[in-house]
Amino acid sequence: MVIDHIGIVVKNIEEGIEHWREVFGYHQMTDVVENTRQRVRVVFLSKQDSLLVKLVEPVGPSSSVFAFAKKGGGLHHLCFKTDGMSEELERLKGLGLRVLAPPEPGEAFENEDIAFVYAKHGLNVEVIETDKKAARPPE
């Protein structure tokens, strides 16, 4: 597995995009996409020679990240890309990690499957097996 991106929860995605542009030099890489299953809006940001950043904004109080965003947000997850999700999830479970969300289509990844597991030290891990990202905004 290799790190694909880091996920950051924000209260407001547009403000988050501007903050990451101004402070860290990141640029919006994709359109803002609503993930209806997880009730969040997400956008990918990029910077040359750096990891991708995915900003995550809750869509209402039923979102799993609503309380976290209300407290100010911050680091939510590391995402690892694998060549075989089923095998990797079984390996991680065998090492004692807990599956939080089994594989399901993720709108930010053109409906390719995503999964979440919980590792030690409070770390949420997203697992993907695709390079696809949401549509890119017009130049």
What does this structure look like?
The chain has 139 residues and is α+β, with helices and mostly antiparallel strands. The protein has a single domain, classed as 2,3-Dihydroxybiphenyl 1,2-Dioxygenase, domain 1 (Roll), CATH 3.10.180.10. Strands 1, 2, 3, 4, 5, 6, 7, 8 and 9 form a nine-stranded mixed β-sheet that branches. It is globular and about 40 Å long. The termini are far apart. The mean pLDDT is 94.
Largest sheet: 9 strands, mixed
Helix content: 10-25%
What is the average per-residue confidence, as pLDDT, rounded to a whole number?
94
CATH hierarchy: architecture: Roll
* Number of structurally distinct domains: 1
Low-confidence stretches: none
Cα-atom radius of gyration: 14 Å
Run of helices and strands? EHEEEEHEHEEE
Count of separate DSSP helical elements: 3
| Helix and strand composition category | alpha+beta
Shape: globular
CATH top level assignment: Alpha Beta
The CATH superfamily is 2,3-Dihydroxybiphenyl 1,2-Dioxygenase, domain 1
Number of strands: 9
CATH topology: 2,3-Dihydroxybiphenyl 1,2-Dioxygenase, domain 1
For the structure shown, list the relevant keywords.
9-stranded mixed β-sheet, 139 residues, 2,3-Dihydroxybiphenyl 1,2-Dioxygenase, domain 1, single chain, globular
Offer a quick outline of the entry.
The protein is of the alpha+beta class and 139 residues long. The protein has a single domain (2-128), classed as Roll (2,3-Dihydroxybiphenyl 1,2-Dioxygenase, domain 1). Helix content is 19%, strand content 42%.
